[in-house]
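Field guide to reading this record: the first block holds the primary sequence, the second block holds the structure written as discrete tokens, and the final block holds curator observations. Each block starts with its own label. This record concerns Dephospho-CoA kinase, catalogued under organism Pseudomonas zhanjiangensis.

BLOCK 1 — SEQUENCE
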Amino acid sequence: MMKPWILGLTGGIGSGKSAVAQCFVDQGVHLVDADHAARWVVEPGRPALAKIVEHFGPEVLLADGQLDRAALRARVFADATERRWLETLLHPLIGEEISQYLARAESPYAILVSPLLVESGQHQLTQRVLVVDAPEQLQVQRTMLRDQASAEQVQAILRAQTNREERLRHAHDVLVNDRDLSWLRSEVERLHAFYLTLRGGQA
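BLOCK 2 — STRUCTURE
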């Protein structure tokens, strides 16, 4: 049994990563979501949460002891030094979680979905990178709808994320997601058929 190779799936906010990821899951591909791993490492009782509270104070906790993500996000988006501190703490822990989950894959290839695939260095865990891209105007519209956010908030997140050129520079494959879901499904089916022909993620 060959060990599955790992496909990194990334894209800017509102590009439709989740929809693409779901299409791959529907094809039976094992998928690990870095955002889920990022949530697991800060669950109550995990060492990362204690360190975050020690550093930022109890105001980043909700009444039930869970992390108050909105409060923490507000702090780290306002201060690049604090964001770097948090990333230095969390990225290695998230990397460990991801590796453990990827190791359980039984499909010919597995997918690591991560909005920060390039920035966090998580692309080093993968053999191939698929970037989901979309026109910026569409990204902003989708995100405002999904998160009930203002255009300004979405623009701020877009600025904080790796720029499009940097993401595309790491891409082996690019999926421009600017049409409807049935088109997207057929594109994913086409990519999936291609990926099944690859050994170790390379043609």
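BLOCK 3 — OBSERVATIONS
The longest strand covers residues 5-11.
Residues 80-102 form the longest helix (23 residues).
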